[in-house]
Amino acid sequence: MQTRLIYNNKNLCYSKPPQSYGPNQESIILSVSEPIQNTIVIVVPSSRRNFSQRNLIRQTWGSIRIINKVHILAVVFFLGGQDAPGDEEVDVAKLEAEKSQFGDIIMGDFEDTYRNLTLKTIMVYEWLNAFCEEADLVVKTDDDVVLNIFKLTEELSTWTPAVVDSLNFWCGLHLEETIIREEDSPYRVSPEEYSGNVFPQHCAGVGYVTTMKVIQRIRKEIATSFQGIKCTHEDVFMTGIVPLKINSDGNEPIRYVDKIYEWIYYVDYFNINENILYLLQLIQQPANETLDVNEFKKRFEDKIFYLILGVPNFEKVYADMWNLLRKVYRKEKEITIRIDVL
Predict the structure, then answer these.
(1) Number of folded domains that form the chain
(2) Is Glycosyltransferase among this UniProt entry's keywords (predicted)?
């Protein structure tokens, strides 16, 4: 592996009964009597200091293990092993306790910085290849995203073995994205990282689905062809630059299925439109008193990845958004999720 693991759990993807997330929460199994169609693993790159985001995921969509004929083997968080220089020091004892309690954290021997996101995602792909080959599909998302696990698994349950064996990314596709070269920008990409005038087509990092076959191809290509400087924009590098190299060598091509309008939604507090206003007003109601399920589905029917941006009281909005999705998509009587922040 290119990344040395300083904390690992090799057994996360082994088929086993779902674990409990503490005395107040238990993993949820829905539709357990149905035969399993596909198995998935969900990977979440996370910052060391994002304790509450990880806890929110564990107690909301991350608590579900079997639903819609899909078995979710694990939800796994990937962190760097050291704080960034100049950052406030993370409570190491608290992090150790979290690792020990939940066992769902993988940690690499590098600084946990924005510029190291590519290194972190390489670690994700290497870990999947080494310890999670049992999964049919991989779902990647971020720790500020509310994942509509109901809609996601409903979609994935229809995918045939031929689809699962394909070389596809299903994602929000970015085309001809401008490259920032300014020295003082945190998003700067040097010509050594990538020399083109625009980025190659690539997936939005907020969320995508791919196959283990793609994970293995990309991991192998990085080990073979990308030993030097790598583009620090992880979504560009992993889902754009490396596939471009693979496809240029006459191999069976990696393909993209664009889902940017169907799957991805930005709940952006600083760019409010009619739909965002509707959504924010709805989730602020204690029990969604005015919820019209048909109206909600008309506006957001196919959305899977809800990125929460700039909202005050992030934890409450996140939990309320999850409870809204439960009420819309679950047939059972709604039970409000209790959020116990670590």
Answers:
(1) 2
(2) yes
The 10s digit of each residue's pLDDT in 59-99 is 999 999 999 999 999 999 999 999 988 888 999 999 999 99
Q: Say if 337 falls within a structural domain.
A: no
Residue type, 227: Q
The residue segments making up the domain with residue 183 are 5-258
Helix H or strand E encompassing 80:
strand 70-82
Contact 146, 322 (CB under 8 A): yes
281 and 237 share one domain: no
Q: Name 127's Cβ contacts closer than 8 Å, sequence gap at least 6.
A: 1, 5, 8, 76, 78, 106
pLDDT digits (tens, 9 = 90+) for 148-183: 999 999 999 999 999 999 999 999 999 999 999 988
Which whole-number Å values give the CA distances from 308 to 35, 291, 312, in the listed order? 34, 20, 10
Instruction: Name the residue type at position 170.
Output: W
Same domain, 247 and 269: no
Of 336, 334, 3, 322, which is closest to residue 150 (Cα–Cα)? 322
